[in-house]
Amino acid sequence: MYICTLEIKKYSVIMRNIIIAILSILFTTLSFFACEPDNTLASSDWNGNWRMNEDIIFPQTKNNQNSIKTSSGTIKIDPNNERKIIISGELFGLNPSFSISASVVSSNATFDQKVGIYQIKGTAVLNNSNQITFNFNITTENSNTETYNRIAIRI
């Protein structure tokens, strides 16, 4: 009886060690795969100086020559949130003190923000390291809306 109990304890210790070894291998494997890069973060290719391929004519003053805005400005990754980019207002022909925050998943961005008297809503696609396609609406405080499709080129 004593020998049988000793064999059971020995078997229990061996099984416990096998289970610990399997769990260790599993944990190590999971830790290794957890270290892969997060592809949902904003690509560093967003950073830089950009120029729109066409001027933006703001909706409330279509017949006013001053409503035409030549658009160049900067885009940078938000230092406080790597899933956001900050688009300078100048890129949309706005005051340089304005900026637009956009949520990013890899090479796609979305934004919907009130900037001054304008509501700007749209998307941006980073086509490659030198080109971004913007599709957006600008709505004024008196509900005049204009839709734009612009390409920005790195300068």
UniProtKB/TrEMBL annotation:
Keywords: Membrane, Transmembrane, Transmembrane helix. The chain crosses the membrane at residues 12-34. This is Lipocalin-like domain-containing protein. It comes from bioreactor metagenome.
